[in-house]
Design a protein that fits this description.
By secondary structure, this protein is α+β, with helices and mostly antiparallel strands. It has one domain (37-199): Beta Barrel (Lipocalin), CATH 2.40.128.110. Helices cover 24% and strands 45% of the residues. It contains 3 helices and 8 strands; from the N terminus they run H-E-E-E-H-E-E-E-E-E-H. It has an 8-stranded antiparallel beta barrel with strand order 1-2-3-4-5-6-7-8. The longest helix has 30 residues, at 2-31.
Length: 219
C-alpha cells in the first residue's frame, strides 16, 4: 500500500515538474525575445470622400508621417508618438458639391490641413492589428477618432503597415443640421501605408557604405 502511495506521489511530482518546466520555457522565450527599434522608411497616403453627387478625391499638397516603433521577430511591441498630417490642395468645385463645401470650409477657417495624433494604443498580436485612438485636427477643431493599423512581418525583417482613418462629415459641421440625416453616411477616408525597417540595420548599412576618396591630379 505504501509503495502505491509513493508511486502516485512520484507521478504527481513528475507531472508538476514537467508543467513548471514548460511554463518556464514559454515565459523565458517571451521574456528574452529580442525587441528592436524601427523607423519609417517610406510612406504613401491617399484621401477620398463620399459625397451624394460624386466621390471627392482632392490633390494632396504636403504629407508627413512620424512615430516610434519597437518589435520582435513575430510582431509589434509598441507604437508611440505616431502622427501624420497632410494639406489639401484643391477640390472639384464644379462637379462635387460636398467636396466644394469641405474645401470652402477649410479656406474659411484659414487652415487646409488635416492631422492625426496618437493618444492611446492597444496591440492585438494574434490578429496583427494595432488599434489607436487619437485626435484629428481639421477646420481648426479637434475631433477624437479611432484608427486601425494592420501590419505584416516581411521576410526581409521589415514591417508593412496599412490603415484607414475615417472622418464623418456631420461631425465637422460641414453638412447643414437640417439635412444631417441625409448625409449621415458621408465621410472622408484617409488611407495610409508605410514600411518600417530596423534602425540598427539602417545604421549598419550606412557604416558599410564605401567612403568617397578625394582624388587629386598633379600636372
Amino acid at each position: 500500500m505504501k509503495k502505491l502511495i509513493k508511486l502516485a506521489i512520484s507521478k504527481i511530482l513528475i507531472s508538476l515538474l514537467a508543467t513548471c518546466t514548460c511554463l518556464f520555457l514559454f515565459s523565458s522565450t517571451k521574456l528574452f525575445a529580442q525587441e528592436e527599434a524601427y523607423q519609417i522608411q517610406s510612406s504613401k497616403l491617399s484621401i477620398e470622400g463620399s459625397g451624394k453627387l460624386k466621390d471627392w478625391k482632392p490633390e494632396i499638397e504636403n504629407f508627413g508621417c512620424t512615430g516610434k516603433f519597437s518589435a520582435h521577430e513575430k510582431g509589434l511591441d509598441s507604437i508611440s508618438n505616431f502622427s501624420f498630417s497632410l494639406s489639401v490642395n484643391e477640390a472639384d468645385h464644379k462637379q462635387d458639391k460636398v467636396g466644394s463645401d469641405i474645401y470652402q470650409a477649410m479656406l474659411s477657417s484659414g487652415n487646409n490641413k488635416i492631422a492625426f495624433s496618437q493618444k492611446n494604443l492597444m496591440i492585438l498580436p494574434i490578429l496583427k492589428v494595432a488599434q489607436l485612438n487619437g485626435e484629428v485636427q481639421m477646420l481648426n477643431g479637434l475631433h477624437y477618432a479611432p484608427m486601425s493599423l494592420q501590419y505584416v512581418m516581411e521576410k526581409d525583417q521589415s514591417i508593412t503597415v496599412k490603415g484607414t482613418q475615417v472622418i464623418w462629415l456631420y461631425e465637422l459641421g460641414v453638412v447643414p443640421k437640417d439635412i444631417k440625416d441625409y448625409h449621415a453616411k458621408d465621410k472622408i477616408s484617409i488611407n495610409i501605408e508605410f514600411t518600417l525597417t530596423k534602425i540598427s540595420a539602417v545604421i549598419a548599412k550606412s557604416q558599410d557604405a564605401p567612403m568617397e576618396k578625394e582624388i587629386r591630379f598633379s600636372n
